């Protein structure tokens, strides 16, 4: 049986107006609608496909405030079996390294994990470093930017997409960590039956103390990076209207040259 942990995160909906808190320049979570990050839906989908191809169990793992429960329930309604939610006020403002330490401790608590699946980067911070740090802390091989994933016996194979859209074929022994791109699959929509079943699936809520993590290693005050200043995005300026008197193409080209676009 393949024991899979999927890392999920609740993020501000990209259709909402997102902003930072004026007091400490951390994300103002109350200012925007919150959703399960789309890349995490694809990570959950890939775990479910592996489970459905054989025997397995899928645990979703989230670090975040109480409202992250909504994202967890979404993943459970897709078909994941159970969840761990690490929620602790001490985590407010944690940087990538502290977050990865907490996630790694939570994965260890699950125990006997064969495969950890994550998105390649979250749509809010876009740091893209957490999967690699988690793999390093757990001593696992990491297979990143996967657009195809296959588990065969005790090994995992991925097609890794490179920046020039080339492919690299990677293989590692389990246990391992794989981060996936948006091209890995199309996630399923939760069914009504799945939504109802998710309400009864177990969600274990843990604090950093439960994981044996020192609260002095997490949080904004212990972060290695901080936002020291923030300003609202300037309003979009009016566009330039081009009248076509037979020379519209030339005017448009001249405008683009002036903007150094062409």
TrEMBL record:
The keyword Transcription regulation does not apply. Its cofactor is FAD. Keywords: Electron transport, Transport. It holds the Pfam family ETF. InterPro entries: ETF_a/b_N (IPR014730), ETF_b (IPR012255), ETF_beta_N (IPR033948), Rossmann-like_a/b/a_fold (IPR014729). CDD domains: ETF_beta. SUPFAM superfamilies: Adenine nucleotide alpha hydrolases-like. Gene3D superfamilies: HUPs. Residues 231-250 are annotated as: Disordered. Residues 24-215 form the Electron transfer flavoprotein alpha/beta-subunit N-terminal domain. The electron transfer flavoprotein serves as a specific electron acceptor for other dehydrogenases. It transfers the electrons to the main respiratory chain via ETF-ubiquinone oxidoreductase (ETF dehydrogenase). PANTHER family: ELECTRON TRANSFER FLAVOPROTEIN BETA-SUBUNIT, ELECTRON TRANSFER FLAVOPROTEIN SUBUNIT BETA. Belongs to the ETF beta-subunit/FixA family. Heterodimer of an alpha and a beta subunit. This is Electron transfer flavoprotein subunit beta. It comes from Amycolatopsis magusensis.
């Amino acid at each position: 049986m393949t024991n899979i942990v999927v890392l999920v995160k609740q993020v501000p909906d990209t259709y909402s107006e997102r902003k930072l808190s004026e007091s400490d320049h951390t994300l103002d979570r109350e200012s925007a609608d919150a959703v399960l990050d789309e890349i995490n839906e694809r990570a959950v989908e890939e775990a479910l496909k592996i489970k459905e191809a054989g025997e397995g169990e899928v645990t979703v793992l989230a670090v975040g405030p109480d409202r992250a429960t909504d994202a967890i329930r979404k993943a459970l309604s897709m078909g994941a079996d159970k969840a761990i939610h690490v929620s602790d006020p001490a985590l407010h403002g944690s940087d990538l390294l502290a977050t990865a330490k907490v996630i790694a401790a939570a994965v260890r608590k699950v125990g006997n994990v064969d495969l950890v699946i994550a998105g390649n980067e979250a749509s809010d911070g876009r740091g893209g470093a957490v999967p690699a740090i988690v793999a390093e802390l757990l001593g696992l091989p990491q297979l990143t930017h996967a657009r195809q994933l296959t588990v065969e016996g005790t090994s995992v194979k991925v097609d890794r997409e490179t920046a020039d859209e080339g492919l690299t074929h990677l293989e590692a022994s389990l246990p391992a960590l794989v981060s996936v791109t948006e091209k890995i699959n199309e996630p399923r929509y939760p069914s009504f039956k799945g939504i109802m079943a998710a309400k009864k699936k177990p969600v274990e809520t843990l604090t950093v103390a439960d994981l044996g993590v020192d609260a002095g290693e997490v949080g904004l005050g212990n972060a290695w990076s901080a936002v020291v200043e923030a300003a609202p995005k300037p309003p979009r300026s009016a566009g330039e209207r081009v009248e076509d008197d037979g020379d519209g193409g030339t005017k448009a080209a001249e405008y683009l040259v002036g903007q150094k676009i062409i």
